[in-house]
Amino acid sequence: MTDETTESGEQLMLMDIHTEEAKKILRKVKAYKKVQRVRMEALADETAKKQELLALVHKLKFKPDDEGIIKFGIDDTVIKVTPSKETISVKIKAEE
């Protein structure tokens, strides 16, 4: 493999790489990009659901404790919301 760099510090194309190694690299790159795309889509969905939950908690006017935290339970689920930081913590006993 060549490890030459251009004057700007950019790496040159790999000229001496074997065809099979190049195919392995490209397969790994494609797998990585696929997982990255799925993660980014999941993050966007998670962010939207978090905002919906924060809006509902705000709408229901739950009162925070002295530390500004709203904590309540429903069935086997404990929800802790810190509105000032827009953080949500959820613990479901069945998942522990």
Could you explain the architecture of this structure?
The mean pLDDT is 86. The protein folds into two domains: 61 residues; 34 residues, no CATH class. Strands 1-2-3 form a three-stranded antiparallel sheet, covered by helices on one side. It has one helix and three strands; from the N terminus they run αβββ. It is α+β, with helices and mostly antiparallel strands and 96 residues long.
- Uncertain regions: pLDDT < 50 for 5+ in a row? none
Across the major sheet, the strand order is 1-2-3
Shape: elongated
Order of helices and strands: HEEE
Strand content: 15-25%
Mean pLDDT reading: 86
**Count of helices?**
1
Compute the separation of the termini in Å: 49 Å
Domains, number: 2
The Rg value, from CA coordinates, equals 24 Å
Total E-strand runs: 3
- Biggest β-sheet, characterized? 3 strands, antiparallel
Percent of residues in helices: 40-55%
User: How does the helix and strand content classify structurally?
Assistant: alpha+beta
Which helices and strands appear, and what pairs or packs with what?
Elements: H1 19-59, E1 70-74, E2 77-82, E3 87-92
Antiparallel strand pairs: 1-2, 2-3
Descriptive keywords:
3 strands; alpha+beta; 96 residues
Please sum up the structure shown.
With 96 residues, the chain is α+β, with helices and mostly antiparallel strands. It is 43% helix and 18% strand.
